[in-house]
Specification:
The complex is a heterodimer of chains A (about 110) and B (about 110).
Chain A (H helix, E strand, L loop, with lengths): L2 E3 L4 E5 L4 E3 L2 E3 L6 E7 L6 E7 L7 E2 L2 E6 L4 E6 L8 E8 L6 E2 L3 E6 L1
Parallel strand pairs in A: 2-12
Antiparallel strand pairs in A: 1-4, 3-9, 5-6, 5-10, 7-8, 8-9, 10-11, 10-12
Chain B lengths: L4 E3 L2 E4 L5 E6 L6 E7 L6 E7 L2 E4 L8 E4 L6 E5 L8 E8 L5 E3 L3 E5 L1
Parallel strand pairs in B: 2-11
Antiparallel strand pairs in B: 1-3, 3-8, 4-5, 4-9, 5-6, 7-8, 9-10, 9-11
The chains are: A mainly beta (about 110), B mainly beta (about 110).
């Protein structure tokens, strides 16, 4: 069965600094998709970044980038130049391309002014 | 409306009551998902619709849970005879394509 593990319940970062959130997953599939979602205190979850497993190049979206290590089944999120608005719960998620998405337990990110 | 909306945002039910939670997806989105999110946890899949067809309901915790999407747009998640363990945030998401889910704000259900 596929699983997604986020081992950091909480992380803190100083404003303008860089932070990396970790995620590991387990799957026997060769093609799949990985995601990072942000859930601010208002609870509306939004997609931050998406990575297709068949792409070797790491996805980037402005200040957000991933380090995708397929062999190690690792998918970390790097946030550069952290801003107060980045404070939220971050969830790593996986799908093998069906409609079933599996989410990790989340990492709460605090941004210190 | 530009996004996914859910109503009510908060619901308090006495144990044993029936509740109905509504989801209005983004217009034109074929796929619709329901998730249950317990406190401090990630969302857990409940059920999936493609248009009006419920293709997977394997995540529904018991036969007290029922979901429908009769016209392929608005969806309702119904919970009969609510129990305390049903207390959670219920999230709806719609997807127009390419694995980009848009989530609603959720309904926080508290069963007393």
């Amino acid at each position: 069965a596929q699983t997604v593990t986020q081992s950091q319940p909480e992380m803190s970062v100083q404003e303008a600094e860089t932070v990396t959130l970790s995620c590991t997953y387990d799957t026997s599939e060769s093609d799949y998709y990985l995601f990072w979602y942000k859930q601010p205190p208002s609870r509306q979850m939004i997609l931050v970044i998406r990575q297709e497993a068949y792409k070797q190049q790491n996805a980037t979206e402005n200040r957000f980038s991933v380090n995708f290590q397929k062999a190690a089944k690792s998918f970390s999120l790097k946030i550069s130049d952290s801003q107060l608005g980045d404070a939220a719960m971050y969830f790593c998620a996986y799908t093998s391309g069906t409609y079933k998405y599996i989410f990790g337990t989340g990492t709460r990110l605090k941004v210190l002014a | 409306g530009a996004g996914v909306s859910q109503s009510p945002r908060y619901k308090v039910a006495k144990r044993g009551q029936d509740v109905a939670l509504r989801c209005d997806p983004i217009s034109g989105h074929v796929s619709l998902f329901w998730y249950q999110q317990a406190l401090g946890q990630g969302p857990e899949f409940l059920t999936y619709f493609q248009n009006e067809a419920q293709l997977d309901k394997s995540g529904l915790p018991s036969d007290r849970f029922f979901a429908e999407r009769p016209e392929g747009s608005v969806s309702t998640l119904k919970i009969q005879r609510t129990q305390q363990e049903d207390s959670a945030v219920y999230l709806c998401a719609s997807e127009g394509g390419y694995y980009e889910q848009y989530f609603g704000p959720g309904t926080r259900l508290t069963v007393t």
